[in-house]
Amino acid sequence: MKLHTLGALCLTVLGLTLIPASVDAQTSSETTLDAANFKQTTVVHLWATWCSNCKNELQSGGWKKTVEENPTTHFVFMTVWCEGDGREMLAKYGVGGQKNVKILASNNPSRLTADRTKSVLGLPLTWVPTTLVYSGGALRYSLNYGEIRFPMLQEMITDCSSKW
Questions:
Q1: First to last CA, the chain
Q2: How big is the CA angle at 140 (ends 80 and 120), to the nearest 5 degrees?
């Protein structure tokens, strides 16, 4: 199924319309993904299928390991600046079948600077990959400009999940 055939079906993130990858084209309900709803630790990973840094992160096995070692943490993988949701690429590296993973796609696939998505969840989007870590309804960490270091991400998840 091509993304553009889904029409107005949407998930709105502060003005950015997203299309849940698992939703049937006939579904008409709307859901709002809002940072205020991220009560549990939630990692939002913005990436593109053409991005070499994004591919390197997946190929390293870091995302698969991090997702599986943190079953109570929610992970949202959202493609930006590309067509489709990247589900096949994620699956190739063992990400996506876990219950704590959601896969989304921006409805604006443009990579052109003038046209592309410029913000997500009220934050500027200037580079992929970008990884945001939320807890208690608030942004706790924002990682931009290059590949993530998974031990550092694990420390952030642990910090956000602690009950102190």
A1: 46
A2: 25
pLDDT in single tens digits along all 164 residues of the chain: 333 322 333 333 333 444 343 332 222 222 335 655 677 999 999 999 999 999 999 999 999 999 999 999 999 999 999 999 999 999 999 999 999 999 999 888 888 888 888 888 888 888 999 999 999 888 999 998 778 999 999 999 999 988 86
For the whole model, what pTM was predicted?
0.79
Q: b vs e for 35-64, b when ≥16 Cβ sit within 10 Å of the residue's Cβ?
A: beebeebbbbbbbbbebeebbebbeeebbb
Domains of the chain: residue spans and CATH: 37-161 (3.40.30.10)
